[in-house]
Amino acid sequence: MKRGISLLAMVPLKSVLVISRDIILMGVIDKMLHQTCHLLFFRDFKLALDFIYNTPPDFLILDLADNDTSDIRILNDLKSDPMFGQIPVIALFSEDFDIPSWEHLLADDYLRRAGVESELGKRVELGFFRAERIVEFNPLTRLPGNITITKQIQNRIDRGDIFAVGHADIDFFKPFNDKYGFSRGDEVLKMVGRLILNVVKEQQPQGSFVGHVGGDDFILIMEVDAVEEASRRITAYFDKLIVTFYDTVDRERGQIASLDREGKERIFPIMTLSIGISHNKYRNFAHYSEISQIAGEMKHCSKSVSGSCFRMDRRRK
């Protein structure tokens, strides 16, 4: 009997992270999906978290046959995080597993173990298409985009949360992009997205958010008391990493020759990172645009200073 051609085979392979302690089950999943997906296997959810935070997969298959409450807790924390809640999750259960209330198990779909061989491929395929219809994110960095950023800020304002918004912007990115090309420029953007995400999540694992506005602009949302240290670390790491994207000659010179916005050749320094920070600790905002505008103003203040830096709004009125 010939197998039907899956629609997944018509698009680039997407990453599916499988967490299971059952070697036989992992073998079955590998046999079923290896031609249509890039599979990654972990035996322990906790060990998989570092990988998920650094390289978010496109899909997650979690084997809960052992009824491990710690795995359910980790899953719920992951799905409650706006950064990773977009990852579709299928939970696999044993035949006699008593499925708890979905309010307490934040999976997107489930299968009994007996149905894996006949149904898993179709469920994964459907999950991909469902995620593409619902989720809004930047295709390059895989970070949430403008719509999600706006919702994140407005929802926090509506709830009365006290929080800070950081607006990060890469200085002299366009000349670099013009000289080295879009491919290397994209690598810089992906690096900056991962850097901001890693630092923010390490500094504040719960309740923080990172988004990609587009181009070389990023947004981070954190607790007011945590945002300055995070910004300090982000700018310091950026300065260490960014030089590796330049050719040796340009790196040693500390500058490049490229075209300005008028098309004239000029000398530009190595890229830097500017972060502007606003918060509502001392002032009330009714609309996301108000706090975002102040973050933008502080970003421009940062840009007036040579080198990577951040500036935080300290006004109380």
Characteristic terms for this protein:
317 residues; alpha/beta; Rossmann fold; Alpha-Beta Plaits; 2 domains; five-stranded parallel beta sheet; five-stranded mixed beta sheet; 43% helix; disordered N terminus
Structural write-up:
The chain is of the alpha/beta class and 317 residues long. The chain folds into two domains: 7-134, Response regulator (Rossmann fold), CATH 3.40.50.2300; 146-312, 2-Layer Sandwich (Alpha-Beta Plaits), CATH 3.30.70.270. It is 43% helix and 21% strand. The protein has a five-stranded parallel beta sheet with strand order 2-1-3-4-5. It has a five-stranded mixed beta sheet with strand order 7-8-6-11-12, sandwiched between helices. Mean pLDDT is 89; it is low at 1-11.
Topology:
Layout: E1 14-19, H1 23-33, E2 37-42, H2 45-54, E3 59-63, H3 69-80, E4 89-93, E5 109-112, H4 116-134, H5 146-159, E6 164-171, H6 173-180, H7 182-203, E7 209-214, E8 217-222, H8 224-242, H9 248-253, E9 255-259, E10 265-269, E11 272-279, H10 288-303, E12 309-312
Parallel strand pairs: 1-2, 1-3, 3-4, 4-5, 11-12
Antiparallel strand pairs: 6-8, 6-11, 7-8, 9-10
Helix pairs in contact: 1-4, 6-7, 7-8
Summarize the structure.
This protein is α/β, with parallel strands linked by helices and 317 residues long.
Helix segment tally: 10
CATH architecture of the largest domain: 2-Layer Sandwich
Question: Under CATH, the topology of the largest domain is which?
Answer: Alpha-Beta Plaits
Q: Mean of the pLDDT scores?
A: 89
- Poorly predicted regions are 1-11
Give the class from helix and strand content and strand pairing: alpha/beta
Order of helices and strands: EHEHEHEEHHEHHEEHHEEEHE
